[in-house]
Amino acid sequence: MGSKNKLRRFKENETFANVFQPTRNELVGHSFALKGNWNEHVFKNNNPLVLELGCGKGEYSVALAKKYPNKNFIGIDIKGARFWRGAKTAVEEGIPNVAFLRTQIELIEYAFASNEVDEIWITFPDPQIKYKRTKHRMTNAEFLNRYKTILKPEGVVNLKTDSEFMHGYTLGLLHGAGHEVLYANHNVYKQEGSPEEVTSIQTFYESQYLEQNKPITYIRFKIK
């Protein structure tokens, strides 16, 4: 993407009422006013709050928001020029129950209060296969502790990935730490009984993976 295009998207993001871009100092300094108040101040209701971490272009967040109008969705990514697409679609189509937050996933507990979130989706994260990149895997123990901080006691996490490595790594970690695996599937489009929200929504890259006959894996779990 050209730098002019990026700048245009950054500028346009600033005009969208559904995009929030706190500074790191705001978050770490505990002055981010939406922490603990997302439903009240942004969505103006008490519906369940669902996050998509590393939302990319925001297409999954937007599709979930359309499918579940009685839930509130927030797509989170550090790359605003990417989720610009999802934010713009939501504005143009008048989808009121989806918003976008530009921040690092590492700062998530500064953006949401304890027990504020009902559900988390992690869709096609970078598996960070090299051992020295373990700390960046979005399902490592440190990240799970962050998620636990903001999730309600019965809150769940969904991991959807084309990486068999990420799937196996996460399952092993979950079982080893005594977390509760609610559902696991090595190939959601080939096995019967896959949850509908997993198979009925596809990202741009996911459709490409399917054309290449890459299996899409899925895990739904609770953090103990």
TrEMBL record:
What are the binding positions for S-adenosyl-L-methionine in this chain? E52, D77, D126
Which SUPFAM superfamilies did the record assign?
S-adenosyl-L-methionine-dependent methyltransferases
Q: What is its EC number?
A: 2.1.1.33
Cite the binding residues for substrate. Answer: K130, D162, T203, F204, Y205, E206
Provide the alphabetized UniProt keywords.
Methyltransferase, S-adenosyl-L-methionine, Transferase, tRNA processing
Q: PROSITE patterns, per this entry?
A: SAM_MT_TRMB
Pathway assignment reads: tRNA modification; N(7)-methylguanine-tRNA biosynthesis
Uppermost EC category = transferase
Listed under catalytic activity are:
guanosine(46) in tRNA + S-adenosyl-L-methionine = N(7)-methylguanosine(46) in tRNA + S-adenosyl-L-homocysteine
Per the record, the similarity remark reads:
Belongs to the class I-like SAM-binding methyltransferase superfamily. TrmB family.
Name of the protein described by the UniProt record: tRNA (guanine-N(7)-)-methyltransferase
- The species this protein belongs to is Mariniflexile aquimaris
